[in-house]
């Protein structure tokens, strides 16, 4: 490959495999394979990274583009194949999630899987369902508008979640009223807090929280030793992004970004629009494939679904959408409950670890007791996230 030259658009000559000639693992593999000798651990990953670097693509983007259409079309061949694929595919995705989470790696696999799943489901809907004549143009337009709005909200959710870019000077960053804990936190004589649970997340060492001189006792600030800055209350350090985020909720692998103060509303909007659009598309498809049956009944009992390949593919995609929708619906439910109790995923995880929170509603939500001000006040606070703090006059301060 290193000898295969080609001419670029700018007239410069380059080699097809120039990015692979420095890959020691590839050269070693070419020597081992003809002799049937096994590769050392980690060699295949290094070779894949070298190919991705040579082709200037991210290797984690490729598997969803190749595997998803193949697996769904194989599942449409027979009911038993559908059961095998639709049960093994979520298990593989969960396994890869825990693998990357344990290694603390960022990956575009889940974002690529989500976007390509949307595009492929929409393609199957237009190619297999709409031509059967039972879907009205207005219904197709409604589904398309929901998909476009969801992608717009997703684009907004991928923007700045509220990164802390510069150290906060003394007296320059003030917490809002809803960010003040309801319980006072007492500081020791050396300036360290006795309670540092809300500041020690995602592998951060304890003992870095300290009270700034001149600040009220309830307005607790944390010092991040990794970012070398003072962060306001409820901010946290993301070990995957390597940065501190205001009101950090969690790092979402589906958007490959953190969910924080600036994009939490867009994240909830994207989830809601996805659920509405997905349920609407599932209903239209089941109404075409399983005529005369209620959508919920047709999802579990549709005798003519595998009578022809087109109906089988549509029904298989419906079940794939239903599995994804159920997972995203659970995430949205947890998010809505956390907002109702004014607690973030990070704070709930820390409260469970330190045994300082209460499990409510069968363990679906953890009430830390620090920021809960009631249902209406909690939602009012959430809807005002990201808005500038009201300026107070000198007379109000006095």
Automatic annotation (TrEMBL):
Cellular localization per UniProt: Golgi apparatus, trans-Golgi network membrane
| Chain segments annotated as transmembrane | 70-96, 108-126, 138-155, 266-289, 309-333
Q: Which is an annotated GO molecular function term of this record?
A: protein-cysteine S-palmitoyltransferase activity
The record's listing under InterPro entries reads: Palmitoyltrfase_DHHC, PFA4/ZDH16/20/ERF2-like
Main site of residence? Golgi
Higher taxonomy: Eukaryota, Metazoa, Chordata, Craniata, Vertebrata
Q: Which residues form the Palmitoyltransferase DHHC domain?
A: 219-348
Q: What is this protein called?
A: Palmitoyltransferase
How this chain sits in the membrane, per its record, is: Multi-pass membrane protein
Which keywords appear in this protein's UniProt record, sorted alphabetically? Acyltransferase, Golgi apparatus, Lipoprotein, Membrane, Palmitate, Transferase, Transmembrane, Transmembrane helix
The EC number of this protein is 2.3.1.225
């Amino acid at each position: 490959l290193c000898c295969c030259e080609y001419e670029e658009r700018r007239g410069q000559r380059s080699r097809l495999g120039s990015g692979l000639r420095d890959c020691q693992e590839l050269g070693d593999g070419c020597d081992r394979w003809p002799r049937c000798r096994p590769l050392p651990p980690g060699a295949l990953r290094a070779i894949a990274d070298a190919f991705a670097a040579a082709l200037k693509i991210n290797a984690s983007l490729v598997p969803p583009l190749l595997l998803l259409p193949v697996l769904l079309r194989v599942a449409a061949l027979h009911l038993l194949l559908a059961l095998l694929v639709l049960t093994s595919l979520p298990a593989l995705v969960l396994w890869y999630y825990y693998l990357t989470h344990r290694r603390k790696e960022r990956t575009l696999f889940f974002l690529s899987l989500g976007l390509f799943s949307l595009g492929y489901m929409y393609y199957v809907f237009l190619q297999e369902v709409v031509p059967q004549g039972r879907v009205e143009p207005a219904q197709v337009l409604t589904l398309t508008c929901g998909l476009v709005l969801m992608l717009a909200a997703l684009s907004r959710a991928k923007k700045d979640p509220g990164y802390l870019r510069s150290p906060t000077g003394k007296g320059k960053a003030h917490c809002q009223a809803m960010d003040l804990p309801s319980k006072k936190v007492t500081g020791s004589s050396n300036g360290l807090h006795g309670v540092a649970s809300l500041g020690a997340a995602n592998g951060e060492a304890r003992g870095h929280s300290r009270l700034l001189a001149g600040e009220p006792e309830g307005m607790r600030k944390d010092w991040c030793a990794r970012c070398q800055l003072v962060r306001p209350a409820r901010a946290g350090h993301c070990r995957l992004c390597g940065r501190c985020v205001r009101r950090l909720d969690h790092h979402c692998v589906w958007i490959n970004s953190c969910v924080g103060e600036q994009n939490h509303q867009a994240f909830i909007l994207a989830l809601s629009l996805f659920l509405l659009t997905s349920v609407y598309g599932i209903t239209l498809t089941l109404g075409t494939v399983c005529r005369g049956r209620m959508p919920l009944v047709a999802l579990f009992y549709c005798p003519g679904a595998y009578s022809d390949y087109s109906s089988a593919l549509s029904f298989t995609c419906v079940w794939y959408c239903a599995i994804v929708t159920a997972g995203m619906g659970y995430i949205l439910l947890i998010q809505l409950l956390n907002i109702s109790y004014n607690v973030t995923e990070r704070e709930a995880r820390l409260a469970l670890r330190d045994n300082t929170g209460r499990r409510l509603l069968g363990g679906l939500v953890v009430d830390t007791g620090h920021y809960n001000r009631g249902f209406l006040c909690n939602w009012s606070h959430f809807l005002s996230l990201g808005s500038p703090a009201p300026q107070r006059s000198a007379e109000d301060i006095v």
